[in-house]
Amino acid sequence: MTAQTASADYCSQIEVLRPVLLKYARLQLRNPAWAEDAVSETVLAALEKPQAFAGNSQLKTWLIGILKHKLVDQIRRNSREMSTTASSDDGEDLDDLLFSADGHWREMQHDWGNPEDALRQLDFMKVLEACVEKLPGQQGRLFMMREWLELESEEICKELAITPTNLWVMLHRARLRLRECLQLGWFGAPAAGGAT
Amino acid sequence: MIKLKITCREATGIVLKAEDRSMPLAERLSLRLHQRICGNCRRFARQVELMRQASARWRHYSED
Q: Which residue of A lies nearest to B56 if distances are taken between CA atoms?
């Protein structure tokens, strides 16, 4: 084979990774069609330029790197639709449930213990992923852009044409929700420790 | 001006805000004063810290 042609082995390795790519694309874009497009573009780019894969990193690492660029392209392309469909699913404010009228916690907050204990475990990563998936559409997108794509706030605001205040409100809500979900799904039911 | 007494709701807002932008000194001081007397808010701040570490670990896990 020449350097320009992808070997059958290389192609099948990429195919095996497609579901993983699709999972992250969906988490980021919250739209199956856009996610499919981003993954197809990623796979195509990888197949067109097998020589670009240096082999000194893992194939998955390299593909995720390409995918992240394609996801940003998709976000740009569909930013208008993302922003116009945003408001309907993100209304609820957890703050009112967590705090009483005078601004105090309604319930006792739990000690999550030593981070290493949780972070070492593969199952924790799965719970975290499930919790991110449960975030409402635009909150999920913004959280992923911030934490997974590692974009700066200014970049996110620019790409989606939203105000910083809007972004911060959404991230605030997303983080409170995520915390609630981790508390329920991993660190124990909210009432388990009881108020002591 | 430093607000000497902030509520837990405000303290929570400051902790979350700090994840995405720099925290003004006055807010940092108000928060520290509040946390000194509030175990719930200390625990909340540690939870947010753990979530930050978890995100970093998750990023790594997704690429590995």
A: A147
